[in-house]
Amino acid sequence: MDFLSFIGDNLQIFLSYTGFANATWGHFIMIIVGLTFIYLAIAKEFEPMLLIPIGFGILIGNIPFKDAGLQLGLYEEGSVLNILYQGVTSGWYPPLIFLGIGAMTDFSALISNPKLMLIGAAAQFGIFGAYILALTMGFDPAQAGAIGIIGGADGPTAIFLSSKLAPNLMGAIAVSAYSYMALVPVIQPPIMRLLTTKKERLIRMKPPRAVSETEKIIFPITGLLLTCFLVPSGLPLLGMLFFGNLLKESGVTRRLAETARGPLIDVITILLGITVGASTQATQFLTWNSLKIFGLGALSFIIATSAGVLFVKFFNVFLKKGNKINPLIGNAGVSAVPDSARISQIVGLEYDSTNYLLMHAMGPNVAGVIGSAVAAGILLGFLG
Amino acid sequence: MNKIKIMMPVLLLCTLFNVQAQRTSALKINEILVINETNFQDDYGIQHPWIEIYNSSAGTVNIAGCYLTINATDPRLYQSDNKLTLRDIYGNDPRIYPIPKGDVLTKVKPSQHLLFWADAQPTRGTFHLSFALDSLHSNYIALFDSDGKTFIDSVTVPAGQKADISYGLVHDGWNAKRLDEELRLNQSYTGGDIWIQFTQVTPSSNNFILDKNNKVENFQKNDAIGTGMTATAMGVVFVALLTLYLSFKVVGKTAVSLSHRRLMKASGISKEAAIDIHEQSSGEVFAAIAMALHESTLQLHDEENTVLTIKNTERSYSPWSSKIYTLREIPNKK
């Protein structure tokens, strides 16, 4: 009898440790969100490299368990997930991602037509539009800055800045940033159509000139010196971005460039995605603030896209007839590389099947990466 | 030999940077209690005067090997070309305390403090100095680097110190310049002196307790809507990218002009003709030429699968021996 009651007691203890015994409605909601991410990644191919790790991370982070100090969860010090998460909290994953981005980005389009850089600057209005809105919704300036950076459409930058300014909101900000980056094909085209006339959509731009090797080598060096002297707080991101690009363009560090844009960025993307996803534990994530952040994230993307398109229209007023810019590349000023540039191409082809805008759109697109990193540096400098 | 000539200055620079990397210059004398009657006790449960050192840098600094002294008044020590060390001038004077090496506790973490007991009992441990402070007169305290001649920081604690009231920096690690900046930037700051008397003594902890982020509070107070931040930050973003734009406009023009010059020199044509050739040749043309050359060099064929060849393949792997191609595929239900 004693033995049976012993087994019974143990079974009861075991049951109290299972996910079923500890589940709340929040866990199930988050599991549905994770499954939606995985569905969007596989069925719709929306940013699968990001949504698969994040989606699966959400599942991992929302398996309910009894808080018995077994070092299971992401927020339990010393757990495996917690150790991996330190790359996010101490902010060293994002610069490594930037290293890879630098090593895979061709800045030729930007170098051949440097005025496109200004579109990348204009699109950063999304960040500060969201900052203003976040302040009106009651967030303090540091939190508002971290939320605003979603408008930069740059996941690593959003994670980097939120880990410094508002670590408690980082999960919601990261998930929001990556979700809207994946939804760029849904969000941007209607705004682009709304803000442009048919005549403007048919503008043909001059083909970019061939850029010499020397110019490509000078770009990362000059870019680093000019931007970081102005905004030193952008150094972790911009330093790595331009360093990666120099590895690529120098032509003598092929192996390093290949590692940076291949295995290294893949490893970091996996770790970043899975840990950011797992950081969305229902108990920490399902709050009114998260909902507000999602709303603000959508608005920031809309503002950024609109600002980019409208800026091109404004810029065209000052440009000569043959040098006009097609405003359909204005959306690419947000830094979601290369998705937003691809959207410019797709929407452009809808109106003229021989007008290829992709190369032109890559200019503001990579300028957006620099612009959002500079903006993050400014916010960090002001509010950090 | 040339390589060695190039590498030598590089190595020299690295060595210099390595010395700098220790950042002992970031160490500041932060707070001193000359008369300790009822205050902080040492490991032996005894009150002694103490000197607190603060690491004002963002990296860990090892204070081991540095010198704490109350006898470094010789003006030669403060000359920029000084070659004399404390030992050269004062010999084994007990008023000069070399902080022992080999103790892990001498590493001061960023923005952290280290406390030394001025009890003239160095045998009691690393943090017990070989000299005591004078409770009746002023005390000149100085910190020198491990070379014994590089001055780091000093303070003169005025005479007439009261019991259990310390003399410290108004804000940890600040100097007069930093205080001026604060007075200029933060109008709510009312302090005036860099060194003040503390009735609430703070050994091994901050002199100034930071319980808020001043930057955030300032923005909350002065820019509640966020328009100031937006205008400033967008201005900076535009300036950054405008500077890049202007630089690359110049770089681009120079590159184009150089390529014209090269073309003129190589082909012996006029400048106008060179510009014409440049404008006519697009990236697509170059791509087509490159592709043609590539195909011609490697003897590639457009429809590789239909080409029969008797050439032996040098690869160890071949689709003919691949299991992927020999296994039956799962039927496609679509």
Brief description of this entry?
Chain A contains 21 helices and no strands. Chain A is mainly alpha-helical. Chain A has one domain (88-383).
Per-chain topology:
The complex is a heterodimer of chains A (384) and B (334).
Chain A: H1 2-17, H2 19-22, H3 25-43, H4 48-61, H5 80-89, H6 93-104, H7 108-112, H8 117-122, H9 125-136, H10 141-148, H11 155-165, H12 170-182, H13 184-195, H14 198-201, H15 213-230, H16 235-250, H17 254-278, H18 282-285, H19 288-317, H20 339-351, H21 358-383
Chain B: H1 2-21, E1 27-33, E2 50-55, E3 61-62, E4 67-69, H2 86-90, E5 96-98, E6 107-108, E7 113-117, E8 139-144, E9 151-157, E10 166-169, H3 176-185, E11 195-198, H4 214-222, H5 227-267, H6 271-280, H7 283-298, H8 323-326
Antiparallel strand pairs in B: 1-2, 1-10, 2-7, 3-6, 4-5, 4-8, 8-9, 10-11
Helix pairs in contact in B: 5-6
Helix content of chain A: over 70%
Q: Counting H and I runs of at least 4 residues, what is the number of helices of chain B?
A: 8
Give the radius of gyration of chain B: 36 Å
Share of residues in helices of chain B:
25-40%
Look at the structure and give the CATH class of the largest domain in chain B: Mainly Beta
| C-alpha geometry of chain B | elongated
The main sheet of chain B comes to: 5 strands, antiparallel
Number of domains of chain A: 1
CATH topology of the largest domain in chain B: Immunoglobulin-like
Q: Alpha-carbon distance between the termini of chain B?
A: 71 Å
Major sheet details of chain A: none
Poorly predicted tracts of residues of chain A: none
Order of helices and strands of chain A: HHHHHHHHHHHHHHHHHHHHH
List the secondary-structure elements of chain B in sequence, H or E.
Answer: HEEEEHEEEEEEHEHHHHH
Identify the most extensive interface between protein chains: A-B, 49 and 39 residues
What's the rounded overall pLDDT mean of chain A? 90
- Name the CATH superfamily assignment of the largest domain in chain B: Lamin Tail domain
What fraction strand of chain A? under 5%
